[in-house]
Specification:
Number of helices: 13
CATH superfamily of the largest domain: Aminoglycoside phosphotransferase (APH), C-terminal lobe
Strand content: 5-15%
Number of strands: 9
Strand order of the largest sheet: 1-2-3-5-4
Helix content: 40-55%
CATH architecture of the largest domain: Alpha-Beta Complex
CATH topology of the largest domain: Aminoglycoside 3'-phosphotransferase, Chain: A, domain 2
Number of domains: 2
Radius of gyration: 21 Å
Length: 347
């Protein structure tokens, strides 16, 4: 950790003076795509997590609000012990350091892990109606803003594509189709980042659920596709569809809203997946060009493959599919190689 870390010094002072905690050591626990950082405070007989969310860039109040919505549903989110909203510090339960992605990569049982994650998601969606009503809507505004990130940061900045007017119109038409389809889905509590890096492997009440502060009320398929078409790990479509079908059956057995039939549920899943993955293409590129974080660029090929795969399946997205294959997909390897060279140069 940097010697002159003013935020860390302030955090240590908060623990000692305000909370009476003097950990034996404080070590980095994790960071994420925002400006938040997490530290592990190692105490004599326990460990705790301390969130550092600089108030000028982050607001801890949504995190605290969503925690209070999820805990009563039985979801294993980190319990909040203390919070200083004005300074941006939160003292949390430590859910360990083993996330789903690492466990799956090491050969962990996907059926058990995804079974637990799908069960937890069902609890959120089935029991969380009142909680969802307290969240802002995932409506046209945020859906459109998210989609717009892809042309700006992925196509224009990362790929340096010079699109024609007709190509931009084609993209806008596809985006409008995706928005209309998203708005037609039943609304539920949406975590918005329910994937393998935000699910912790626990011996009891698995999984631990993290990074939920941006939750909204929106499409039923969103969190399901975040989990099963994860931007960091992929599974064959046949297996994904088995999980989707099993999840629909679980919702059906408990009176959930599942649409007119299995095909409609898969359509909801697939099309909100295109919206999510188009958004993520823009976000991953922005993390490099705006925030100086190149690590997410390695996940662009899988994310783009998800978009390409689904566009090929739906006639309404045929024009976008053709553009993807002709203009967009061929440019990505060159763009990523260019950034890799830039990032490896000595400062």
């Amino acid at each position: 950790m940097p010697e002159n870390d003013a935020r860390l010094a302030l955090l240590q002072g908060w623990l000692a003076r305000d909370l009476g905690l003097r950990p034996a050591r404080i070590e980095p626990a994790s960071s994420d795509a925002s400006f938040r950082r997490y530290f592990r405070a190692v105490c004599e007989d326990s460990t705790l997590i301390v969130m550092d969310a600089p108030p000028e860039t982050e607001d801890v109040r949504p995190y605290l609000h969503v925690t209070a919505l999820l805990e009563p549903l039985g979801i294993h989110v980190p319990h909040v012990y203390e919070a200083d909203v004005s300074r941006g510090f939160v003292l949390l339960e430590d859910l360990g350091s083993t996330h789903y992605l690492a466990t799956l990569g090491a050969g962990g049982d996907p059926q058990r892990l995804y079974g637990d994650a799908l069960q937890a998601l069902a609890e959120i969606q089935l029991r969380g109606s009142a909680a969802a009503a307290e969240l802002p809507p995932y409506d046209r505004g945020p859906l459109a803003r998210e989609l717009a990130l892809m042309p700006e940061w992925f196509l224009d900045r990362h790929l340096a594509l010079e699109l024609t007017g007709s190509e931009r119109e084609l993209i806008e038409a596809a985006f409008e189709f995706l928005i209309v389809e998203a708005l037609a889905q039943p609304e539920v509590f949406v975590h918005r980042d329910y994937h393998s890096r935000n699910l912790m492997v626990l011996a009891e009440r698995n999984p631990g659920v993290l990074d939920f502060q941006d939750a909204l009320r929106g499409p039923i398929g969103y969190d399901l596709v975040s989990l099963l078409k994860d931007c960091y790990i992929s599974w064959p479509r046949e297996r994904v569809l088995e999980w989707v079908g099993g999840y629909r059956s679980l919702l059906q057995s408990r009176g959930g809203r599942i649409g007119g039939g299995p095909a409609q549920f898969v359509r909801w899943f697939d099309l909100i997946g295109v919206q999510r993955h188009v958004k993520v293409l823009g976000i991953f590129a922005r993390l490099w060009y705006r925030d100086g974080k190149p690590g997410y660029l390695r996940d662009l090929p899988l994310t783009l493959d998800y978009v390409r795969e689904t566009c090929r399946l739906y006639p309404e997205l045929a024009a976008l599919s053709e553009l993807m294959e002709r203009r967009i997909a061929p440019e990505l390897p060159r763009a990523n190689a260019r950034v890799a060279r830039q990032a490896s140069r000595p400062a």
